[in-house]
Amino acid sequence: MLLSAFEKVKLENAPFVSMGFFAAAFVMQLTAGNHESALYGSVFNGMFVSNSFTQAAGLVIIGCGFFTAMTCLTYFKQNNPCTMEFYSVLFFATGGMLMLTLSRELITSFISLEIMSLAIYILVGYDRKRVTSTEALLKYLLLGAFAGSFFVMGSALVYGGAGSTKFAEISSFISTHSAGTPLLIGGAFFIFVAFLFKVAAFPFHAWVIDVYDGAATPVTGFMATALKAATFTVFANFLALNGAMQKEWIDFLFYIALFTMFGGNLIAIGQSNIKRMLAASGIVHSGYLLIALVAISTESFSGSVIAYYLAAYSVGTLGIFAALSYLGGKGESRMSFDDFKGLAKVRPYSAAAIAVFLLSMAGIPPTAGFMGKFYIITSAISANQMALAVFGVISSILSMWYYLRLIIIMYFQEPEDTFEIENSIFAPACTFILVFCVFALGLYPIVI
Amino acid sequence: MFQYVLSVMIFMPLLAGLFVLAAPISKGIARLAGFIVTGIILLLGIELFLGFSGSAGMEYVESRVWIESLGVNYSLGVDGISLLVLFTCALLFPLIFVVFSTRTKGFYANLLICQGAMIGAICATDLVLFYIFWEIMLLPIFFMIGLYGGPGRLAATLKITLYTIAGSLLMLAALVYVGVAYHTQFGEWSFNIVQLAKLNLSGGYAVLAFVMFMLAFAIKIPLFPFHTWLPDAYTEAPTSTTFVLSAIMAKIGVYAVIRFVIPVFEIEFARFAILLSLAGVVGMMYCGLAAIAQKDIKRMLAFSSASHMGVIALGVFCMNVQALTGSLFQIVAHATSTGVLFLFVGLMEEKMQTRNITDLGGIAYRAPIFATFFAIAMLASVGLPGTSGFIGEFLIILGAVKFNAFIGILSGTTLIIGVCYMLWMFQRVFFEKPKELTEKFTDLNMTEVLTFLPVILLIIFMGIFPQPFLKKIEPAAQKHIAEFSTVAPTVIVDTTVPSEGLNHQKN
C-alpha cells in the first residue's frame, strides 16, 4: 500500500502514471478486506493495524491523490510548469498519510506524520518564484516543526507515564491505573496540540489561511482533504484507545470544537478571496469533525461517522479546488469573489458544479455533505451532547452566508470577464466526476 | 403500475426539470415540456383523488429501506390529511405554464424541480425523507427569486433563504433528537411517522425540540411574528413564484405541523396550543390591517395571504375535528382563490407594467370576463357564502369558538377585515374612472379563459357541494384528533407547566 514510485518517464506522462498508481492502490485498498488485523505482525510488532475505519480513510486519501493528480494536469498547463519530482513528492505525502492512518504506536505515528508533513512542505513551496508561496512555506514549516516537536514531547511524557508507546499497552495501563496522572495528562495534551495544529483547530488555526492561499490550488485541495483525513483518523484511533482517557478530555474537546466552529465562521465571513474563504471554512469543518470525536463511543468504536464525513467533505472540497484550478486562469489571477461575477452566464456547467459543491459543504440535501452532517448530529445527540449538536447547527446557519454569497455572485450578477481558460479536459472532467460522487455518496450513503 | 404513482409524481417533474436545465433547448420547448409534464401530473393527481377510498389510513403506500443502520426508509403514502394538499399541488402548476410565456428555460426547469420536491414533501411519511424534500424545495425558489425577481430581489432572496434555512437546520437537530429518543425507548432506529407517534417525550429537551420544529414551520407558513420575510419575498418574486410560494409552499408548512408535530409532540402541542392560536389570530389581524394600507396590489395580496395563513394555522391549533377539517379544506380554497389572484395580478402587470392601485381604474368596463373571474376568486378569498372560502373559514371559526370563545370571536373578524381591503381595492382597480393606462387593457383571450375557467368553477363547486371533499378528509382528521385526545387531556392535567417564557417561539 505504500506507493512511492520514482517513475523515470517523460514529464507529460507523469500525471497519467501517477493516476494509474493511485487507481491501482484504490482497488487494492478496496479489496483488502475490512477485518481487524495487524499488518505484518511479526516484523512490525503490531505497530500497524488495519480495520474498516483505516480502510475507509485510506480510500479517501488515495482518492484525493488521484483527483489531485488529475487536476494538476490542467493546472500546470497554465501555471509554472512543474518537474517530475512533484508527483513523487505527492506519492511520499500519500504514503505518509496511509502509514499514519494505520499506525497504532506513538513513534510510528510521529515518523509517518513527519513523512507526510515534509512532503507537504515541499508541495506548498513548490513554486519558488512566487512570494506568497514562499511565505506560506516558511510559516507552515516553522509552525509545523513546532507541532512536530510537541508531538515528540508528548510521546516522551506518555512513555514515561505508561511505560509504552503502543496504543494497546497504554490503554491497558490506563485501565489498571488511572488516566489522571500528571505525566499522562501532560503527554496527551502535547499530542493533542500537535493533532489540533495539523487539522487547524482553534487556537492553532491561524496558519491555515495564508498557507492555503499561498499553495498551488490543487495542492491546497490535497492538503485540505487528505491531510485532514489522515490526521483525524489517527486522532480518533488515539482518543478511542481507552474510555477513561476519552472521558478525561471530553470537556476540553467540547470547547475546542465550539471555538473552532465559531472562530472559523467569523474568519470566513470576512474573506474576499475564495481560497482564503475555503481555508476558513475548512476550519469550521474541522470543528464538525471534532464534534464527531467528542461523540465517539469507545466501547464500540467503528469510526464510520468520521470516515463518512471525511469522504463527504473531501469530495466537496476537492471538487471546488479542481474547478478553481482551471477557472483560476494564468497565475491564479481569478481568485477573489468579485472575479467570479456572472460565471453562470458564461460557463453554466462549471458554475452549476461549484454551486453543488458549495451546497454540499453547506449541508443541503440531497448532497453528501447533508448526510455527513446528519450523521454527526445523530452521533452527537446519541452521545448525549445535545448542546454541541445545537451549536453545530447554529454554526452551519452562519456558514450559509458565505457559501450563498459565492452562489449569488455567480448567478445573480452580470459577467465582467470572459473566463478564458486553457483548453484541457482533465480538471473539468475531474470536477464533474466529483459532482457525481457528491450525489452518489449522498443518495447511497455507505456506512461501514 | 398505479401503486408507484407517488414516485412517478415526484421524480417525473424532478428529472424533467434537470433535463430541461441541462439540455440545450429553446424556451418554447421548455415551456411545452413543462406543460406536458405538469399536465400528466394533474391527470395522475385527479385519478389519485378519485381512487382515494376515504379511509382514515395511508393509501398508495410505498416503502423501501434506504439507510439501514439508521432505519431511514424511502416511504411514501397519502391519507386524508395530505390528499387535498397534493391535489392542489398537482392542479395549480399547469396554470403557470399556460399563462406566462416570457420566461427563460431555466425558470421552467426550476418550476418543475419545485413541483417534484413539493410533492415529495407532501407524500413522505419518513421524517428524514420529508426533510430532504423540504430543503430541496427551497433551492428552486432561491434561484427563481434571485434570477428573475424584481429590483430588490437580492435582499429578498437572502432574507427568505436565511430565514427558512435557519428554521430547517434547527428542525434537523430536533428531528435527530426525536430519532435518537425513539432509539433509546424502543431499541431500534426509525424515522417513520407512524412509529414515532408512539414516542413518549417529556422534559426540557422535548420542549426545545418542539419549539425547533414549530419554528421551522412557523417561518414557512409564516406565522406571526416570523412573517417579516414574506412581504419582500412575495413582492419581489416573479408572480408565478409568488403563486407557488403562497398557494403551495405555505400550505406545506401547515400540513407538516399536522402530519409531524401533532402526533409526536402531543403534550407540548396541547400546552402551547393557546399561545400558538393567539399567534395565528394576531398574525391574521395584523397582516389584514397592513393589507388595507398597501398601495401595491401584489404587496396587498401578500399581506392578505399571510393573514389567511394565520386563520388556517389557527384551525390546526384548535385541536378539534371541525377546525382541522376546515383547515384542510381551506388549504385548497385559499390556494385556488388567493393563488389565482396572484396570477391575475401577474397578468395585469404584464399588460400594464404597473401594480400601483392608484394608477389603475375602470378595468371592469374594458375587460368584463377578467373582472368577473377576479371577483369570484376575490369573494372566495374573503369567504363569501357559496364559495369555497366560506366553508373552510366557517368550519375553522366554529372550531375556534369551541376551543376558546375569545379566540373564536377574534377569528370572526377575519371576514370583516378581509372584506375591507379586498372590496376597497376591487372598487379602485375595477370601477371608478378608467385611467390612461387601463384604456387599452384587453380582456382575457380564449386560452386564458379556458385555463382559468376550471379553477373558477372549482371554487364555486367546492362552495356549493363541499361534501365530496369533506368526505375524504374527515375520517383522517377524526382519527388524528382521536389519537391526540386519548393522550393529551389526561397527561396535561398531571403535567405541571414549567416556567416557560411567553415568547417561547423566539428562543
List the helices and strands and how they pair.
The complex is a heterodimer of chains A (448) and B (507).
Chain A: H1 14-31, E1 37-38, H2 41-44, E2 49-50, H3 52-78, H4 85-102, H5 106-124, H6 131-162, H7 167-176, H8 182-198, H9 206-214, H10 217-239, H11 243-269, H12 274-295, H13 304-327, H14 343-346, H15 348-362, H16 368-382, H17 386-412, H18 426-443
Antiparallel strand pairs in A: 1-2
Helix pairs in contact in A: 1-3, 3-4, 3-10, 3-13, 3-18, 4-5, 4-10, 5-6, 5-10, 6-8, 6-9, 9-10, 9-12, 10-12, 10-13, 11-12, 11-17, 12-13, 12-16, 12-17, 13-15, 13-16, 13-18, 15-17, 15-18, 16-17, 16-18
Chain B: H1 5-22, H2 27-51, E1 59-67, E2 72-78, H3 80-99, H4 105-123, H5 127-148, H6 153-186, H7 193-196, H8 204-220, H9 229-236, H10 239-264, H11 266-293, H12 297-317, H13 321-352, H14 363-366, H15 368-382, H16 388-403, H17 405-430, H18 436-439, H19 446-464, H20 467-494
Antiparallel strand pairs in B: 1-2
Helix pairs in contact in B: 1-2, 1-4, 2-3, 2-4, 3-4, 3-10, 3-13, 3-20, 4-5, 4-10, 5-6, 5-10, 6-8, 6-9, 8-10, 9-10, 9-12, 10-12, 10-13, 11-12, 11-17, 11-20, 12-13, 12-16, 12-17, 13-15, 13-16, 13-19, 13-20, 15-17, 15-19, 16-17, 16-19
Helix content of chain A: over 70%
Instruction: Average the pLDDT over all residues of chain B and give the rounded result.
Output: 82
Secondary structure: number of strands of chain A: 2
Give the CA-CA distance, first to last residue of chain A: 20 Å
- Name the shape of chain A in a single word: globular
Strand content of chain B: under 5%
